[in-house]
Amino acid sequence: MNQPLSQHSRRLRRYLPITLSVTVFLLLIGAILLFNYSLSNKLNMLTHHIDATGEISDESYNLVYEIQRISLQTNQAAESTSYPVPDLSYLQETTEYIQELFNILESGGLYGEEEDSVMVDALKDSTQIEQLQVFKNIWSPYQQLLTQYMNAASPDVQQIYLGQLVAYAQEQKQPIYDTLDRIIDNLTNESQSISQQVRGLQIAGISLIVLFFSIFIFYFIRQMIKADAKLEEAREETLEILTTVSTGLFLLDESLTIGGQYSKELETIIGKREIGGQQLETVLADMLSPEKQKSLKLFVQQLYNPRVVENLIHGLNPLRQVDMTVDDFHGSYQAKTLSFRFSRVVKNQKITKVLVNVSDLTTAVKLEKQLAQEQAQSNLQIEMISTILNTDYFAMKNFIQTSLQRLNTMNNVLQEPEKSAEAMRQKIRAIYREIHSFKSESSAFHMRSFVSLAEQFEDKVRTLQDKPDLTGQDFLALTIRLEDLFNNVHLANNLHQRIKAEGEKSEQQAADTAVNSLSPSFFEQFITDVAQRNHKQVALTYEAWNESALPENQKNVIKDILIQLLRNAVVHGIENHNERARLGKPTQGHILVSLDKVNDKVELMVEDDGQGIDYEAIRQKAIRHHIAPEDEVQTWNKQQLLTLLFRSGFSTAEDNNEDAGRGVGLDIIKEQVQSVNGRLKIATVANKFTKFTITI
Questions:
Q1: What is the pLDDT of residue 516?
Q2: Closest listed residue to residue 293, CA positions, set 278, 273, 279, 274
Q3: CA distance 626 to 269
Q4: Among residues 620, 615, 662, 623, which one has the least CA distance to residue 643?
Q5: Are 633 and 623 a contacting pair, CB within 8 Å?
């Protein structure tokens, strides 16, 4: 305990000379400023006195002029035997103003306009007071004559007073000016004397400050030279250590300021130079997200909290392993994985700093990611093998061939040159429909890896849909994503070809299986999967099912349409079991499907007993997406609102998932129906049913 106190005492003694010097310096400056302030106030007061005295002189002249003017006017009127009433308002105002200024000089008071008035003291110099008394002796009779003249009871009496007033004004005009000039001269001399004192004070003050500062600098420079020599020796030793270590080391204070000394390797690791004294948040600003920066600040604050156990919060370190893009100082950037470790520096049982150790884990993480990718690839193959083994051989073969056809169609669309902005929009819509159909069928066959890649592809396409101006370069990202899809489908195809079907099926059996790709069991399982993902209970029944009514070239089209309609019925039509119970419906929803020949045409019907089409939800979605002005949308009828459901990118679902929210389901149905020259009819009743009827 004695050692810390001794160190503290030595530190205080070391700073005592500079503390005393600064105190004396500040007191000196304060005294000079205080004296200068006092003289400035006196000088300012004298200026107001001079101004007030000058105004009295000017107003006295104006008063004499006005009296002479009134006298002349009165004499001219007498010759014409008429006595007009003179305007005495100016005479009254001037008299009152002279008296007001005199009172200020004699007793003090407010001087100037109301918004700019200042408090002026009375004259204090004996000479000035003496001359002011002389003026008062002249002014009092003068003022009395003015009052008598202005208050005369009749024109004749007024004329008598006017004569006396003119005579007195002429007689005392010069004495008044002389008296006021002597006051002004005396005030001016006093003002000049104070101005000289101010200048002398400033010169003396500057001289004292320069002298004191010179002594101060001379003494302390000597002390600093000695201290610098010791510090330089210690700094060189520190630099040798910091230059040698192979990790990034630096000290961090509570405000996240990096210490001036840090290891040379730190600059190479984080790609920043001259970082000493900078904020860690600023140094890493272009490499960390705002959320990471906020977490880092909170973590360091916890490290400086003595009540927090250090070992217990290491797991909260937001930079324990973080990916960054780092400048390599050669004109390019490298992706690195860095690890920041934080340790408290404790001195005298107080947390003074935090030591940060930065390591480059890039190589180790790359090896770990490579192993993870290989493991993921193995898991993907296992998943594919499991799905293929549990799916009919020829049904899976048909799915893979159809998937390759869809991907080739997308590839051809991507390679087509764009001639206009509208052509690019059509290109996006065509790609969107194909990838959504691919995802839908992949979902039906439980190919989750395909579904995941398709959703990523859809997100990229959706980004392009929202972009106002498209260029050919924007489609390059889709080409890369499409390559991933091709690779996965080819992988599935290779795995499928290695797996022989149970027994040796004949070509006729293969054809039968292809026909059975529209088998009811396939769609029943599909409905079960979609319902489970959306937490609903749904049963599928068939009113009629005549596959033979369909030409071979239309079976895939009908399958696509049916997949979209069934998914739409489960997601958008059937309510959850709680809502159905509230409405008095069976908790299990019901979908009725029919495929048959009617009047030489094939008719596909899908009907659900759900909530029906919510026209108001469509209207509100159209308003939020600014499809048209709100007042216009409010006037749309049901047919106009229904048309929006078949618009690309429009969906009433609030969230995106595997089954809904991407706005292409009914759009695909419309395109598929048109491709086979079919017709589509919709019937719906709120809280009762929705029925889609497609005639080909």
A1: 45
A2: 279
A3: 49
A4: 615
A5: yes
Radius of gyration of the chain (CA): 50
Q: For residue 504, what pLDDT is reported?
A: 44
- How many DSSP H helices and E strands does the chain contain? 21, 12
277 and 251 in contact (C-beta within 8 Å)? Answer: no
* Cα–Cα distance, 337 to 321 (Å, whole number): 7
Which tokens is 20 given? 């005393």
Which residues does 241 contact at the CB level (< 8 Å), separation at least 6?
A: none
Task: Count how many Cα atoms sit within 13 Å of the Cα of residue 125 in the half-sphere of its side chain.
Answer: 18
Report d(CA 110, CA 105) in Å as an integer: 10
Tokens of 115: 């918004």
- The predicted structure's pLDDT at residue 510: 46
- Predicted TM-score (pTM) above 0.90: no
Question: Rounded to an integer, what distance in angstroms lies between the CA atom of residue 264 and that of residue 256?
Answer: 20
455-513 residue pLDDT tens: 888 888 888 877 878 887 888 888 888 888 888 888 888 888 877 544 444 444 444 44
Report the C-alpha gap between 200 and 599 in whole angstroms: 120
* Buried-state track 127-143, b at ≥16 Cβ within 10 A, e below 16: ebeebbebbeebbeebb
- As a whole number of angstroms, the distance between CA 662 and CA 664 comes to 6
The candidate with the shortest Cα–Cα distance to 48, out of 97, 119, 129, is 119
Strands (E), 210-331: 248-252, 258-262, 322-327
The tokens describing 193, both together, are 């004397």
Distance CA 180, CA 164 (A): 23
- Burial of 170-191, coded b for 16+ CB within 10 Å and e otherwise, reads eebeeebeebbebbbebbeebb
Q: What is the pLDDT of residues 524-571, one digit of tens each?
A: 888 998 898 888 999 999 988 888 888 888 888 888 888 889 988 998
The tokens of 51 are what?
């101004």
3-state DSSP call for residue 679?
strand
Query: What phi and psi, each to the nearest 5 degrees, are found at residue 602?
Result: -90, 130
Q: Which pair of structure tokens corresponds to residue 283?
A: 């140094």
Tokens matching residue 209: 């400050």
* CB-based contact 127:111 (threshold 8 Å): no
Angle between helices 448-466 and 476-498 (to 10 degrees): 170
Q: What is the reported pLDDT for 511?
A: 45
- Stretches where the chain sits below pLDDT 70 are 1-15, 77-85, 234, 238, 372-374, 376-377, 380, 500-517, 648-649, 652-665
Tell me how many degrees the CA angle 532-607-623 measures, rounded to the nearest 5. Answer: 80
Q: At what angle do helices 421-444 and 520-533 cross, to 10 degrees?
A: 100
Q: List, edge to edge, every strand of the sheet that includes 589-598.
A: 538-545, 589-598, 601-608, 689-695, 679-685
| Per-residue model confidence as pLDDT tens digits over 98-142 | 988 889 888 888 888 777 788 888 888 888 889 889 998 999 999
What are the percentages of helix, strand and coil residues in the chain, rounded to 5? 65, 15, 20
Residue 452 tokens read as 């995941």
- Rounded Cα distance between 694 and 594, Å, is 10
In this prediction, residue 7 carries a pLDDT of 57
| Residue 290 and residue 324 in contact, taking contact as beta carbons nearer than 8 Å | no
Tell me if 219 sits within 8 A of 227, measured CB to CB: no
CA atoms of 287 and 270, how far apart (whole Å): 9
